[in-house]
Amino acid sequence: MIPTKFEYERATSLDDAVARLKATNGNGKLLAGGHSLVPLMKFRLSEPKVLIDIARIPGLSGIREKDGKIEIGAGTVEHGVA
Q1: Which helix (H) or strand (E) segment is 57 a member of?
Q2: Closest CA to 34 of 12, 15, 60, 8
Q3: What's the pLDDT at 21?
Q4: Which single residue of 14, 19, 48, 72 has CA 20 to 30 Å from 82?
Q5: Which neighbouring-strand residues pair with 72?
Q6: What are phi and psi of 37, to 5 degrees?
Q7: 35-80 pLDDT per residue, tens
Q8: Which of the 8 DSSP states describes residue 44?
Q9: What is the pLDDT of residue 33?
Q10: Cross-strand partners of 64
């Protein structure tokens, strides 16, 4: 199937992503990898009017040591961990 029409926006920061999501009045979804959202859209089980891409927001990906602990960012892809 083909998903319904939607707008695509790319957020440049976390604050930008939050502002864009609020502006959709509940009709937007955040998109990082799309592995779970896109199939739902294809079967029209999810029909957001706006997709907000957060995949390239600085600081969401990467591996860092902080206070003696390893921190893996939410946007880190699997090959970045291996």
Answers
A1: none
A2: 8
A3: 98
A4: 14
A5: 63
A6: -75, -45
A7: 899 999 999 999 999 999 999 999 899 999 999 999 998 888 888 7
A8: T
A9: 85
A10: 71
- Residue whose tokens read 């799309």: 34
Query: What is the distance, to the nearest Å, from the Cα of residue 41 to the centroid of all Cα atoms in its chain?
Result: 15
Domain definitions of the chain by residue range: 7-77
DSSP string, 62-74: -EEEETTEEEE-T
- Report how far residue 78's alpha carbon sits from residue 48's, in angstroms, rounded to the nearest whole number: 27
Dump pLDDT digits (tens) for 5-24: 999 999 999 999 999 999 99
Domain boundaries 7-77, corresponding CATH code: 3.30.43.10
Rounded Cα gap, residues 38 and 29, in angstroms: 11
In the chain, the amino acid numbered 68 is: G
